[in-house]
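Supplementary notes (optional reading)

For those who missed the lab, this is the record we used. Protein: Type II secretion system protein GspF domain-containing protein. Length: 283 residues.
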Amino acid sequence: MSMSAAATCIGAAVWLLGGRHYGVRRARLLLAGGGVVTAGPPSWEQVMGELRRLRGRLGAEWWSLAAGLLLALLGASVIPVVAGAAGVPVLRRLRLARQAGRARERRADAVIGLCGALAGEVRAGRQPGEALLRAARDSGGLGEAQAAVVAAARFGGDVPGALAVAARQPGAGGLLGLAACWRVAVDRGAGLAAGLERLDGALRAERDQRADLRAQLAGARATALLLAALPALGLLLGSAMGADPLRVLLHSGAGLGCLVAGAVFEGAGMWWATRIVRGAEVV
């Protein structure tokens, strides 16, 4: 009965998605005044296309709920569904944090490229304002504050102030050094290209140090992930041996106690390992 109910729900969801897509397409064709509208239910290709688009819109964290539904069907219990639903926001937070980290790294690389390009433009004999305009257009290291910095450079505004504002973006801290070099070069007549080259070298050395540290911590991350996957491996081995671990864990008092204790220890271990790795990255 559980399998039949799940199949019915999935079929209804697919039918609704396909019907909605068909209705929207038909309305667009009618309002546009052209095209051929086919009647009848959506085809298999349309259904699969809708499923692919839905998978693209949803994040990977929803696999937690799908795994919970599968375990609920196999173990005839609602507990895996609740656990899978509770894991969705946690996995979403981890995914967003990973995306933010990648964006921060890309912005840091763009700032390094900006400093190198600006130093090359100044060495070529261009004025600082014109050089900054060319370098910002080519590298894109200013991010969301690029318009303000470009306007300040083009119309003689406060370029160091605009760079300091742009440096508030995650990963763009190197722009503070660029602002300091610009201020010293303008106020005291120092060489801007020499300062930019030293700044570029320092930022590159810092990036290489972070990359080396991540490489050294890759083993610790892999070990933590392996230890986190051991309970799932134990369940698979128990099922292969015919012990039916899901029935024991979900339908007995001792099993529920072991399940709760194991989940608590698993979460605490993952949190502690993540904290250690992040602390090493900060240091």
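If you only remember one thing from this example: The longest helix spans residues 192-240.
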